[in-house]
Design brief:
The chain is α+β, with helices and mostly antiparallel strands and 236 residues long. It contains five helices and seven strands, in the order H-H-E-E-E-E-E-E-E-H-H-H. Helix 2 crosses helix 3 and helix 3 packs antiparallel against helix 4. The protein starts with a helix and ends with a helix.
């Protein structure tokens, strides 16, 4: 869905009754575009967090002398300068560049197809996630592991110079109403009055109901990773 189409759906729909942020034609004012992009970015993050819309994996080279791994492109092999440097680049991403898009780590698997218990202190060989993009391996080995994670939507640049006809919002059609309701919630909430707060809560409830409906209908399901797929995608 093009960003321009989403902005039209928002301004002609949920926000059509508001003068602020829209022209007489119903379209969002050019000067207010950065504000609405901020709302959309927040909505995309919330939606991608609440639903498994995007799931990815990244390969990490672990070693016996390191227990903590920050999954940041700072340590990605794809960012190594010509001639090399002294950074321990344990993220192996030459084929598919790591984009710093982790929402939460969902699974960790090694080359022997062993799925590490995640955040289970009573389990042998458990690994932990102290932060969304942090991996703690109490008993590391010299091996490759695949870190499977829920990924966020790429941030839309917050600028008036953005060509809304060229930028894509990657959400399934059945998630559009949820995203519209969340953006309306953020916009109305910014009004600051008691009436605005009450109405914004109604939009937030509408968003939550849409997410619940999608989950209950089984329209979107978690990406079930198989060891065969992990080996094919990451290590072969």
């Amino acid at each position: 869905m093009k960003l321009s189409d989403f902005l039209d759906a928002l301004s002609y729909g949920e926000l059509s009754q508001y003068a602020s942020g829209t022209e007489d034609s119903g379209r969002i004012w050019y000067k207010d575009l950065p504000k609405f992009i901020t709302f959309i970015n927040a909505g995309l993050l919330r939606l991608y967090t609440d639903l498994p819309i995007s799931q990815k994996q990244v390969t990490v080279q672990t070693n016996v002398n390191q227990t903590k791994y920050l999954l940041s492109s700072e340590f990605a092999l794809s960012k190594e300068p010509e001639g090399g440097d002294e950074v321990n680049r344990y993220i192996l991403d030459l084929e598919d560049e790591f984009e710093d898009d982790i929402i939460t780590i969902e699974q960790v698997v090694n080359e022997n197809e062993f799925i590490f218990p995640l955040n289970s202190p009573d389990e042998e060989f458990a690994v932990f996630t102290p932060g969304p993009n942090r991996l703690l391996i109490p008993e590391p080995r010299n091996e490759l592991v695949a870190v499977l994670y829920r990924a966020r939507h790429k941030k839309i640049p917050v600028t008036r110079r953005l060509d809304a006809d060229e930028y894509e919002i990657n959400v399934p059609d059945y998630c559009e109403d949820a995203l519209i309701n969340y953006c309306a919630y953020r916009f109305v909430k910014s009004g600051g009055s008691a009436e605005s707060v009450n109405l914004s809560n109604a939009y937030l409830a509408a968003y939550e109901n849409e997410v619940f409906r999608i989950k209950e209908a089984g329209i979107i399901t978690e990406n079930i990773y198989t060891n065969t797929r992990i080996w094919r995608d990451s290590w072969v």
